[in-house]
């Protein structure tokens, strides 16, 4: 099983090396912290946290990068490459890409002001990836609350984990195409002024402005805080799936709790990230330690 000490003798400089490269990337572009956090989520939800999302397509298999939830959307692969080369310089052939992603996600949250946790390590890298598993496993922004609960439940994550982890939307951006129908057709769930603000940069007609960006947290998209939950209580959730967490259902009370008590959100987010990081890792002699995160050895 995974352990926080996994590389302490085989690569004592690992954590400092990763942090240094992630810090530089976030300094260059704040949004990168959000993108790295999301990459880890999209890895863990497809055959576990095994670095599968990092593999480029080849002639013999279709990887996950072009699955619906990732295409024109998942970003940060160059940063993971940069971290991997820095790590290979200090301890060649020792550290998996899956673990690098877990550390990069943890560091991103911390650098942007969120909670800290000791990251468990010892994952190995998959030798394959699955486009169809990515399409089926990663929840869509059109999901209902029940669909979200069951997608998380299928991976051993509770309803509370679902709400806490959705708090990842306290940072980062979404494209118009992912929230258009919510801001035009579900205005009954939203405060009018918010729907209007978002409509102003996301035209109603599909195909127009599809890639225009809006912040997932309208207040502090570059800080990891609990404002995402305040927004939901104020009926200013950007995605349909966000507002589903506070729309008269069973999760309203959890959202209210996190909106009034930031430290309970931080504590629950940290434990849910550790739980998500534990989803079916490859350990022992399974998988491999990739030399290049984009391809199998
Ligand atoms: C609950 C189900 C979830 C759904 C339906 C969902 C959906 C989405 C969508 C549609 C986007 C915008 C993508 C784009 O327009 O390109 C997004 C962005 C993002 N998601 Fe989620 N997400 C969910 C859960 C999570 C979780 C669990 C995390 C992390 C713990 C997370 C972290 C992020 C981050 C940080 C961004 C912004 C990325 C960036 O700016 O590059 N999401 N999500
Ligand atoms: Ca995976
Ligand atoms: Ca925020």
UniProtKB/TrEMBL annotation:
InterPro entries: Haem_peroxidase, Haem_peroxidase_sf, Peroxidase_pln, Peroxidases_AS, Peroxidases_heam-ligand_BS, Secretory_peroxidase. Heme b binds at residue 169. The keyword Protein biosynthesis does not apply. Binds 2 calcium ions per subunit. It holds the Pfam family peroxidase. Ca(2+) 2 binds at residues 170, 217, 220, 225. GO terms for cellular component: extracellular region. The active site is at residue 42. Its cofactor is Ca(2+); heme b. Residues 1-297 form the Plant heme peroxidase family profile domain. Its EC number is 1.11.1.7. CDD domains: secretory_peroxidase. It is found in: Secreted. SUPFAM superfamilies: Heme-dependent peroxidases. GO terms for biological process: hydrogen peroxide catabolic process; response to oxidative stress. Disulfide bonds join 11-91, 44-49, 97-293, 176-202. The record marks 38 as: Transition state stabilizer. One of its GO terms (molecular function) is heme binding. It is an enzyme of class 1 (oxidoreductase). It catalyses: 2 a phenolic donor + H2O2 = 2 a phenolic radical donor + 2 H2O. Keywords: Calcium, Disulfide bond, Glycoprotein, Heme, Hydrogen peroxide, Iron, Metal-binding, Oxidoreductase, Peroxidase, Secreted, Signal. Removal of H(2)O(2), oxidation of toxic reductants, biosynthesis and degradation of lignin, suberization, auxin catabolism, response to environmental stresses such as wounding, pathogen attack and oxidative stress. These functions might be dependent on each isozyme/isoform in each plant tissue. Belongs to the peroxidase family. Classical plant (class III) peroxidase subfamily. This is Peroxidase. It comes from Arachis duranensis (Wild peanut). The lineage of its organism: Eukaryota, Viridiplantae, Streptophyta, Embryophyta, Tracheophyta.
């Amino acid at each position: 099983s995974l352990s926080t000490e996994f590389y302490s003798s085989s690569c004592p400089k690992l954590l400092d090396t990763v942090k240094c490269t992630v810090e530089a990337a976030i300094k260059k572009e704040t949004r990168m912290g959000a993108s790295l956090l999301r990459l880890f989520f999209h890895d863990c939800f497809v055959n576990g946290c095994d670095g599968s999302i990092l593999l480029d397509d080849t002639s013999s298999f279709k990887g996950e990068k072009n699955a619906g939830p990732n295409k024109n959307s998942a970003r940060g692969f160059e940063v993971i490459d940069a971290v991997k080369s820095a790590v290979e310089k200090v301890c060649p052939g020792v550290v998996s890409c899956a673990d690098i992603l877990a550390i990069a996600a943890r560091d991103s949250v911390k650098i942007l002001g969120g909670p800290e946790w000791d990251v468990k390590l010892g994952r190995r890298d998959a030798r394959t990836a699955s486009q169809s598993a990515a399409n089926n496993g990663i929840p869509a922004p059109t999901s209902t609350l029940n669909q979200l609960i069951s997608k998380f439940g299928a991976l051993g994550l509770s309803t509370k984990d679902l709400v806490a982890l959705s708090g990842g939307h306290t940072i980062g951006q979404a494209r118009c195409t992912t929230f258009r129908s919510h801001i035009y057709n579900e205005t009954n769930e939203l405060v009018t002024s918010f729907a209007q603000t978002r409509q102003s940069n996301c035209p109603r007609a599909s195909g127009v402005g599809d890639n225009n960006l809006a912040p997932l947290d309208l207040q502090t998209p570059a800080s990891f805080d609990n404002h995402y939950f305040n927004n939901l209580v104020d009926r200013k959730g950007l995605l349909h799936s966000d507002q589903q967490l506070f729309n008269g259902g069973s999760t309203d009370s959890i959202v209210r709790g996190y909106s009034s008590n930031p430290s309970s959100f931080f504590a629950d987010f940290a434990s849910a990230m550790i739980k998500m990081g534990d989803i079916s890792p490859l350990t022992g002699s399974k998988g491999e330690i990739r030399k290049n995160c984009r391809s199998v050895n």
